[in-house]
Specification:
The structure holds 2 protein chains of 2 kinds. Chain A is of the alpha/beta class. Chain A contains 19 helices and 8 strands. In chain A, strands 3-2-1-4 form a 4-stranded parallel β-sheet, sandwiched between helices. In chain A, a hairpin with a 5-residue loop joins strand 5 and strand 6. The longest helix of chain A has 18 residues. The model of chain A has no long low-confidence stretch (mean pLDDT 97). In chain B, strands 2-1-3-4 form a 4-stranded mixed β-sheet, covered by helices on one side. In chain B, a hairpin with a 2-residue loop joins strand 3 and strand 4. Chain B has 2 domains: 62 residues; 80 residues, Glutaredoxin. In chain B, 50% of the residues lie in helices and 12% in strands. Chain B is elongated and about 50 Å long. By secondary structure, chain B is α+β, with helices and mostly antiparallel strands. Classes of the chains: A alpha/beta, B alpha+beta. Chains A and B meet through strand 5, strand 8 and helix 14 of A and helix 2, helix 4 and helix 5 of B.
Chain lengths: 409, 155
Amino acid sequence: MEKILTKNIDKPNSQDIKVYLDGGGYKALEGVLTLKPEEVIDEVKKSRLVGRGGAAFPTGLKWEFTRREKDEPKFIVCNADEGEPGTFKDRVILSNNPHLLLESIIIGGYAIGASQGFIYIRGEYFEEIKRLNKAIEQARAKGYLGENILGSSFSFDIQLYQGAGSYVCGEETTLFESMEGKRGQSRERPPFPAQFGFMGKPTVINNVETLCNVPAIITNGGDWYSRIGSPDSPGPKLYCLSGQVNKPGVYELPMGITLRELVENHGGGVKGELKAVLPGGVSSSLLTDLNVKLDYKGVREAGSMLGSAAVIVINKDTSIVDVAKNTMEFFAHESCGLCTPCREGTRRAKEILTRFANGGGRVEELALLLELGEVMFDAARCGLGQAAMNTTTSAIKLFRDEFEQKVRK
Amino acid sequence: MSTVLWKMGVDEIIKERGKSRETLLPCLKAIQEVSGYVPQEAVSYLRENLDIPSIDIYGVITFYGMLTTKEQGKYVIRLCDSLPCHLNNSEEMVGVIERELRIKSGGTSPDKKFTLEVVPCLGLCDKAPAMMINDKIYENLTEETAKKIIAELRG
């Protein structure tokens, strides 16, 4: 498959506008400026591109909903706050192909009728922040950002907004709160960002990887794109492979390859003997079978979720109790504390799992953890709490004996 | 001296982004970067200049992992212990660095040279175990390399 998202990133200085232009960069934007915004949205709808941040919502629809809103101004926000453990795909683009992202945001802004875009990037991405700032300067100097872009009537600019160390700010409504200078606490939905986003205005918020598909869709057409990869959710996908695997890394592959192909062919196989895999980071449920299609539907049918495609491989030497405890330490730390199910649930689960890890668990607490998982799924305010117990509950269901061995004698 | 530096940065940000609540986080980040923490006088300054109550400003500072009200060391070590690093012995690395510096996670060495923080995922999962010291990345750590890195910074 021809690379779309990681095209040209092996070239020296790939982050520079000159290299990007030599590879045909900003040509899609030139084309877009001759189209009506509705035509751009139609093309994206035809491509059947869905959001790569994890929620898999159709991108074209999101754009259409926001465009139709009467309220002004409108904003487009790029979510570059990747923080799900095991996810490092957006970093590859931010670091090596920042102009692809800028071009994509500008096109999105044109399509929805925005004149201001934002990139919310996680604070720990120091080098990527520098490169993006540089890229924005270069794009302004060449007239791809600013007043009357390329002589058109369209004016648009992009501002970088840095996060300050909080996982939950990657949740879209929480991200707006953070941009507004507040603590990172989610909002109730509805209203959705298309109606009430940043500063209460209609806002499109898309993940880095999602946006970066758009120039190729414009250049080659939505129909062309819709034939790549899985018929259920077409396009290329950046799979992040980590954990106990021989060749960890980010792999751009057609959506829908199997877990086996990814781990064995691309990742050079498991280090040791396979025990389980988390296909979508620590928010997903464990899988033990590698014959799973890595698209949204395939992973869902296997009982887990693809999320941001953070594929974490776990070998047989690893204690699954320790894995569960580690994920719960993460969620207890990152819970914003606003809703009780998540704030108390993550803490209590962490305490119980710590006791198990130290050989002091009580057997009845396993049922309690499973029940807590259900309660948090039903009652937590945002995705963090709803998904926080997935790894733990699947671990108990799949490897109950390991937990029972850790029961206090 | 550091007061002058953060004030300059803050004034510039307010001038560029306007006197609004949305300007708070960029200001706090700038102060943290220059001073290594957000001193009380900076909170007062922001209260006056952005018209935000101190309690809200402290609410924001204490929420975000990269902002502190306690002075940090010259080198802030952020060592990842999220699952991909954890599966590659990051817990052992935490122990190695804690012993080397004789401080626990969250602590600062008495000479104010090092602060150690065990942090969630840094997005360096293919180079696990990994850490950052200020804005520099250190990857595929072993006991040996971790000790060497600390020794070099110690000078």
